[in-house]
Amino acid sequence: MSSTRTWPVHLALGAGALVMLAPFAWQLIVSLQSLPESLRVPPAFVPSWQWSNFAEVFRTVPLARQMFNTVVVTAAVTAGQLLLCSLAAFAFARLRFPGRGLLFGLFLAVLMVPAELFLIPRYEIMQGLGWLNTLQALIAPGVFGAFGTFLLRQFFRTLPRELDEAARLDGANPLQIYWWIMLPLVRPGLLALGLLTVMWSWSSLLWPLVVNTDPELMTLSAGLASLRGQYLTDFPILFAGSIVASLPMIVLFVVMQRQLIAGIAFTGSKG
User: Fold this and answer.
1) Radius of gyration of the chain, Cα coordinates, nearest whole angstrom
2) In order of start, what are the domains of the chain with their CATH numbers?
3) pLDDT at 113
4) DSSP one-letter string for 6-64
5) Helix (H) or strand (E) holding 58
6) Three-state secondary-structure class, residue 226
7) How would you write 108-143 as a 3-class SS string?
8) What pTM was estimated for this model as a whole?
């Protein structure tokens, strides 16, 4: 296709990119304003370069501690998802057992249930275990998911059956086949699931707000939500904290976007 035919597409994509970037640009502008400037009508589009807002957010909430909590929770949830979901996906894709199709259908049915319906049962379980206001309460519900199982199952199904047969002839059991043969071959799927889990866990808000009330044990999203006041919100401080919380995920996505897109696209190569 010639460049004369593609320029309208590029123009439309460029306009869409500008629309998508507009909220981030406004967030940066407000984070560098004073509170009266952020409340001005009509709005002021030129910041007064209040860099002290970024230091103030660390004094207002224990942001460093909350970032540490977020890193710990995200790492634990991601590790659990990669291990448990890959084990379940391997079983559904490579092993034959009675009721496999029905059980997998029940797994997929979980994806249709709104996550909010699980809040009360999960809260009661955490309360019964005495895990309220602990990091394990943030980690345990997220270490396994139906979506991760479905995603990795698609990868396992693309691998030829001859690999399993050759490994069994060499005396390998199913666990050895999973760990030494199959798992290295689905590395793109593991990477895609890992990146999606990191981004989901890093920005999770509702569950951390429900299960933890101690600011020292909150994650970044819940800690920033506490900056909203009942009658007045200091938007420059809030937006400065949001930028600090978003930067790691922005950098991660920019660096790993090719692997993420390739991994998700590859899931549709075989049903």
Assistant:
1) 23
2) 60-269 (1.10.3720.10)
3) 87
4) HHHHHHHHHHHHHHHHHHHHHHHHHHTS-HHHHT-SSPP-S----THHHHHHHHHS-HH
5) helix 52-60
6) coil
7) HHHCCCCHHHHHHHHHHHHHHHCCCCCHHHHHHHHC
8) 0.88
